[in-house]
Design brief:
Elements lengths: L10 H26 L22 H24 L4 H23 L7 H17 L1 H7 L4
Length: 145
């Protein structure tokens, strides 16, 4: 990846990159943990949260986390850094999918505030969407290859 001068990009573009990176790394970690231990015990997720859901264990949600909210945000983050033309819609999609995931999760398992992961990732998702809508980010990623 080419080195960029510190002033060559808006701060919002760097923050978008950082939020995508945080989401990607945490999605990979959580998804891998749930895939390897679908009981949820390894990361402290109670099995009772799955009652009433279509899932007998955390394997399928873990695979979704691993691929869609882990690997995909890292791939999009790299494209944001490289200023690829489709990086902007890709980043917006990551934010919207994260928010949709949280809404479905809250509907299925209820709002959980201990630990406050739903709030934290809700803020990450909202932050990604808001930053994508910032004119400076749209201009930074517009018309690129």
């Amino acid at each position: 990846m080419p080195a960029l001068e510190p002033s060559s990009r808006p701060a919002a573009a760097y923050l978008l990159f950082l939020l995508l990176l945080v989401q990607g790394v945490s999605g990979l970690a959580g998804g891998l943990a749930l895939t390897l231990d679908p009981t949820g015990d390894a990361i402290g997720l109670p099995r009772v949260w799955l009652e009433g859901s279509p899932f007998p264990d955390y394997r399928v949600p873990g695979l979704f986390l691993l691929a869609v909210l882990g690997a995909a945000p890292l791939w999009v983050a790299a494209r944001v850094w490289q200023r690829k033309a489709w990086a902007w819609p890709g980043a917006l999609m990551v934010g919207l999918v994260l928010l949709a995931w949280l809404l479905v999760e809250i509907r299925v398992v209820g709002f959980q505030n201990d630990p406050p992961l739903q709030v934290i990732y809700g803020l990450v998702g909202a932050g990604i969407v808001i930053l994508c809508l910032a004119p400076s980010v749209r201009e930074d990623l517009a018309g690129t290859r």
